[in-house]
Amino acid sequence: MLAYGKYGVGGNNITIRGGDIPEGLPTTKRSKNLVEASQKTLRLFRKSCRLMPFILRIHDLQPKVTSVQAQLNLAECFREHSHLRDPSIIDDLVFRGYEKLIEAEQLFTFPTYLHQFICQDNKLHSDKGYSYLEEKKYKGKSKFLKNFYKGKGPAY
């Protein structure tokens, strides 16, 4: 006989979504300073990381990316906006982040939309592929400068 618990049959709070109203939603109250805006950003990031295994499972993205890699990719999305210093702009981005998180949690978005945040592979890889201009670009440069321009550190 199957046991029916708080989270359904044989489920838990990580892999099974509850039927409750989404908790911990931010208020629409504006941040007074950068510290409050940063706290809201951290709360959004932590909640997103906690929901990542569930989101990957319900959108069937587990074969494409691990939970840890998805969290790292999400952290990269947050770092893209780390230069912002206006609390109102940060609040707007946090509010949109919560909207996207709730839509992903409630299956309102398509997995292809989530790829840009979770399965991204848009980091600069200058060593992949072949550029026919490489000989012209690095002509006459030392090995150190070639590696420096490609973003590689010195080989110790």
Specify the overall morphology: flat
What is the beta-strand fraction?
under 5%
Q: Segments where pLDDT lies below 50 for 5+ residues?
A: 1-5, 124-128
Distance linking N and C termini: 63 Å
Mean pLDDT: 79
Spatial arrangement of strands, main beta sheet: 1-2
**Number of strand elements:** 2
Q: Radius of gyration, rounded?
A: 21 Å
| Strand-pairing-aware structural class | mainly alpha
Order of helices and strands: EEHHHHHH
The number of helical segments is 6
How much helical structure, as a percent, in the residues? 40-55%
Question: How is the biggest beta sheet arranged?
Answer: 2 strands, antiparallel
Describe this structure in words.
- This protein is mainly alpha-helical and 156 residues long.
- The protein contains six helices and two strands, in the order E-E-H-H-H-H-H-H.
- It has a two-stranded antiparallel sheet with strand order 1-2.
- Strand 1 (4-5) and strand 2 form a beta hairpin.
- Helix 1 packs antiparallel against helix 2 and helix 1 runs parallel beside helix 3.
- The radius of gyration is 21 Å and the shape is flat.
- The model is unreliable at 1-5 and 124-128 (pLDDT under 50).
